[in-house]
From TrEMBL:
Entry keywords, A to Z: Repeat, TPR repeat
Superkingdom of this protein's organism: Bacteria
TPR-type repeats, residues: 161-194
Organism annotation: Bradyrhizobium quebecense
Alphabetized PANTHER family for the sequence: LIPOPOLYSACCHARIDE ASSEMBLY PROTEIN B (PTHR45586:SF1), TPR REPEAT-CONTAINING PROTEIN PA4667 (PTHR45586)
Protein name, as recorded: Tetratricopeptide repeat protein
Lineage, broadest ranks: Bacteria, Pseudomonadati, Pseudomonadota, Alphaproteobacteria, Hyphomicrobiales
Length: 258
């Protein structure tokens, strides 16, 4: 409950007290690690997690340990730990995700993609792995394949806004503006106040030549949020059917902002 309330210091104290009486308590060690991470002190959780990992195979403990080792500047040890965990069977899928994420951070995109693909070979129905693969393909500019992978993820989980948002962004880059707009509209049906998604929708609409609808979307973005004027101005200027203004005042006047 303390963790969920983001009361990290209190969560740390509770977990520490439990570990004083039982150093091998798995749940307390995991809670302590998350409490320390919440305070940007994740490195302090490495030792108790290492003790716990030595007791036997535990994918959750090992994956968190690998992530903390990487975060503490021990990338070689962290990646080695994550590779061992991903090699275990039955597979612990979050280890594939964490390993791929750490490899991507290190610029090793080919291995990151191969890691997620290996996970999908073991669990072809994993929507989370498909989303991760789509993101990596997006980052490496393979927009056609990213769109295909993310479309499959959307079909498997049509109500997930994170998948719809990622798919829409890829579809814009792939040039399928109508499909992108549809994806963003689906997100907005669930979260009508999501202004970032509405900005992406405006981009899609501009690229389709639907300037009036796009400008209406931008007006709704800055309504009550004048700090978003710059984002709205960028959307207009960066799209092929948008508008460009030389002064911020002119943008504000056109969009009805302050």
């Amino acid at each position: 409950m303390a963790l969920r309330a983001r009361q990290f210091a209190e969560a740390e104290q509770i977990a520490t007290n439990i570990l004083k009486s039982n150093r091998s308590d798995r749940h307390a060690a995991l809670l302590l690690a998350h409490a320390l991470m919440g305070q940007k002190r994740g490195g302090e959780a490495i030792a108790p997690l290492e003790r716990l990992a030595r007791r036997g195979d535990d994918g959750e403990v090992e994956t968190l340990l690998g992530a903390l080792l990487c975060g503490a500047g021990r990338a070689t040890d962290g990646l080695a730990q994550l590779r061992r965990t991903a090699a275990r069977r039955p597979p612990y899928l979050p280890s594939f995700q964490e390993l791929a994420g750490q490899l991507a951070k290190a610029g090793q995109y080919d291995e990151a993609i191969s890691t997620v693909e290996a996970g999908l070979a073991l669990a072809p129905g994993s929507v989370d792995l498909k989303l991760d693969l789509g993101r990596l393909l997006h980052d490496t500019n393979d927009f056609a394949r990213a769109a295909s992978v993310l479309t499959a993820a959307r079909d498997a989980a049509p109500g997930r806004p994170d998948i719809l948002n990622q798919l829409g962004r890829v579809l814009i880059l792939h040039g399928d503006y109508a499909a992108a707009a549809d994806a963003f509209r689906r997100v907005l049906a669930l979260y009508p106040d999501d202004r970032s998604t509405r900005a992406y929708l405006a981009t899609s609409l501009f690229e389709q030549g639907e300037r009036d609808a796009a400008e209406a979307a931008l007006r709704s973005i800055i309504r009550g949020q004048p700090q978003l004027l710059g984002r709205a101005a960028f959307v207009m200027a960066a799209t092929s059917h948008g508008r460009f203004f030389f002064s911020q005042r002119d943008v504000a006047k056109f969009l009805g902002g302050e």
